[in-house]
Structure formats: C-alpha cells, structure tokens
Amino acid sequence: xxxxxxxxxxxxxxxxxxxxxxxxxxxxxxxxxxxxxxxxxxxxxxxxxxxxxxxxxxxxxxxxxxxxxxxxxxxxxxxxxxxxxxxx
Amino acid sequence: xxxxxxxxxxxxxxxxxxxxxxxxxxxxxxxxxxxxxxxxxxxxxxxxxxxxxxxxxxxxxxxxxxxxxxxxxxxxxxxxxxxxxxxxxxxxxxxxxxxxxxxxxxxxxxxxxxxxxxxxxxxxxxxxxxxxxxxxxxxxxxxxxxxxxxxxxxxxxxxxxxxxxxxxxxxxxxxxxxxxxxxxxxxxxxxxxxxxxxxxxxxxxxxxxxxxxxxxxxxxxxxxxxxxxxxxxxxxxxxxxxxxxxx
Lengths: 88, 247
Description:
The structure holds two protein chains of two kinds. Chain A is 18% helix and 40% strand. Chain A is built from one helix and four strands; from the N terminus they run ββββα. In chain A, strands 1-2-3-4 form a four-stranded antiparallel β-sheet. Chain A is globular. By secondary structure, chain B is α/β, with parallel strands linked by helices. Chain B has helices at 47-58, 78-87, 93-108, 124-135, 188-200, 227-245, and strands at 5-13, 19-27, 33-39, 62-66, 113-122, 140-144, 175-180, 205-210. In chain B, strands 1-2-4-3-5-6-7-8 form an eight-stranded mixed β-sheet, sandwiched between helices. The chains are: A alpha+beta, B alpha/beta. At the A-B interface, strand 2 of A face helix 2 of B.
C-alpha cells in the first residue's frame, strides 16, 4: 500500500552509517509504508538523518509492525530504568 | 520488429527550467512510434522502474522516466533520494505536471515520434498519471493502483497531496486503471467511486481489479508481486497503448 503517512521530528545523537562512519543525526522520519528491502508488503520505516550532509547521511530501519511495537517497549523499558541522576 | 534497444540516462529541462535526470529507452530502428512517460513509485527512480522503461522500449515505444527526486537528491541512491523527497513533503503537483510535460515534449521531439504520448504511473505515480492526464495533452493514461485519486486524504498528512475529484472532469485522455482487489490504498470502494465519476462525466476508461492481488502487484522484487495480475496487467497495457499510441 501507499499510505503517505509521514511523521517527522528532531533528534540529537549519533548513528553509524554508510562506510562504517559515525555521524551526528539531527532528524528522524517515521512512516508506515513500502519497505525497500524488508520482505514485507509494508513496514514501520525509520530514517535517522543529517540533511545538511546530503541524502546518503542516513541510517534506515524497516521493521514489521510487531517488531516496531517491541522496539518501543524495549526503549521504554530501558529509559524507565535510567536513574534520575543520569537522565539529561 | 527488432527487440534491440538502447537505454541511457539523460538530462532534460523540467518544471521551472530545472535540470533533471531521466532514463530513456528507445527501440533500434527509424520507424515512427508512440512514446510512454513512466512515473516511478514513491520508493523512487529505482532498478525496477528502469526495467519497466526498458520493457516499453521492447514493446516498441520510446519510453522515458523522469527522476522526480533529482532536485532534492542529485546523484543519490534511489532509496536515499526517496527518503529525502518524503521528508521534504513529497513532489508538489504543479512540479509533477511540469516535469511530465517536459518529458512528453522530449519524446515528441524525437525523430521517431508519431506525436502520440501516453503516461503510466505506479503507486503514488498512479495518482500522478491521472493528474497529468487532467492537465496535459496526452493520448492515453494508465493508473496502476494510485491512492487518493478519490477518497479523503487525512488532514494530518504532511505530504502535499489532495484527491483529484475536482480535476477529473478535465481528464482529456482515455484511462486504463489496474487495481488489486485486496488493496487498501486505494480501496475497491474508492476505485468504484472513480469509475462512477468518470462515467458521470462521459470519460473513456477501462478498469480491471484483480482478486487476490494487493498493492504493488507489478513489483517483481517485492512480496506483493502477483504473477497472474501482473501478466494480465501487462497484456491490458500492451493492448491499450496499441489502440491509442499506434501510428
């Protein structure tokens, strides 16, 4: 399907991208639509990118819906375990 | 007819005078022939789309696909370019119309052109094929499972699209529509609504909806590929273009 659904937000962190190089990421785009590579008709797609470095400065994830929900749960569990004094 | 062809990447002047990349495939030989503008799907100007362009050349047409994301991401990998295009809000309709106009003009200027040009688009390109045929002088249009030709675009969508209901009375080319009965974008109900609008406006159209097929059934490298639907669809396209783009 072609949902067109797209959610954008800003992020501050790093990702390991093309050629094994780390780079600073500033933008995240999330959408549920066609994957390029995953063997599913549609997936939760997440792009971490730094648009100022060009189109290839991107780390892409394509996850099944179930995987996406498990990722959310895992992130929430990890963040919930952060001691207050370490949170920034 | 020979099955020999030549395919190459060229630069053309698109909407607004912008330079853009396009993939052009032409049959060998000097006989007069029609042209086909291929509009790529939302995942971009990729290998699968270029295979489609070459197939139209093999069928005897001068065929061209403009890279709709070239402005945002010149030289980028197709998937990266598609990601940038999406993050930037998609391809504006006015720009799409201008780019299709430029590619159609390029085909008509070829020494082998018989003056007739058709358009075909897949996925988001299906909607754009109808959009082009409502606004440009084209001789035939094919919509392969384009969403939001009819139907309501959710208000929260950041992509700059609307449905085409208000433009359909201006459709000025015969339309072939190929859809999957299991598709949700567009739904069979939205396809039926499109048919009703075209009938009410006295338009020339032909729709086929394939049972068991979902969205993107022409995509040979995707799980959605449906052999029966794709094979029949190619036959329908071949016959439709033979009727409308022939000498």
